[in-house]
Specification:
Elements lengths: L17 E3 L10 E3 L179 E7 L2 E6 L4 E4 L1
Antiparallel strand pairs: 1-2, 3-4, 4-5
Length: about 240
């Protein structure tokens, strides 16, 4: 079963549900693949799968597996436009707060598979996740601009064994891995983009490590803290 919609031809399972809503008077979902009632399948299922591969002819442009584009063509000061949204939940419905046990929940996952063990090849740039905030219009005013935003929420009664805002893992798959030049790299592209402060933790509720010492880094067993009274870094 295959259905076309505005030039798109999604490949659908014959047993799945496909709902197409006409563009005129559109107020909700334009294309829905799969029934909202859910499914019973222990091994899992992919509701929408975008597969794009170059077979014989070298690609000179851009090949995309899945692309989402939400554009504002009319004044919409109270509207929100999301190009792609992924949600993984463990409730009995999309809006329910009752919990069901789940092994792993991932809202989004990006994976770059670099191959070349047998023949060897060169890839100029490999990026696991790429985000760009383009605000170079002189007539544009943006109140809050974030290149990337990570929001971690935990309730008072939640039990979170390991909670981190950002995790960077450097893994070797065979033998000694390559040396990472920097865990975090901050640079100006053209040399004229000033940065007021490297890290701003003024709004963070840092736990007091010892009297008026606030922990900044932990390296090995040592904690590097900033002593407010003396204005120096101390280790403990």
């Amino acid at each position: 079963m295959a259905s076309s919609y505005m030039g798109l031809a999604p490949a659908l399972n014959p047993d799945s549900t496909c709902t197409i809503v006409p563009m005129s008077g559109l107020t909700g979902t334009a294309l829905q693949v799969g029934a909202s009632a859910g499914f019973d399948l222990a091994a899992g299922i992919t509701m929408l799968y975008g597969y794009n591969k170059a077979v014989d002819t070298a690609v000179t442009g851009t090949a995309r597996g899945v692309r989402g584009n939400a554009v504002c063509f009319v004044e919409s000061t109270s509207g929100t436009f999301i190009g792609v949204e992924g949600r993984a939940g463990n409730g009995t419905s999309a809006s329910a707060h009752d919990g069901l046990a789940a092994g792993t929940l991932k809202g989004g996952y990006f994976y770059v598979a670099g191959s070349g063990i047998d023949t060897g090849c060169t890839v100029t740039t490999a990026i696991g996740m790429d985000t760009q905030l383009d605000l170079d219009s002189s007539g544009l005013t943006v109140t809050n601009a974030y290149g990337a935003r990570i929001n971690v929420q935990g309730g008072q009664g939640s039990t979170l064994t390991n909670l981190y805002g950002l995790v960077i893992e450097h893994e070797s798959v065979d033998g000694t891995g390559a040396t990472m030049d920097a865990a975090i790299l901050v640079k100006s592209v053209n040399g004229n983009e000033p940065i007021s402060v490297l890290i701003d933790a003024s709004g963070a509720a840092l736990a007091v490590h010892d009297t008026d010492q606030y922990p900044i880094f932990k390296i090995g067993a040592k904690t590097i803290s900033w002593d407010i009274s003396d204005g120096v870094f101390v280790s403990s």
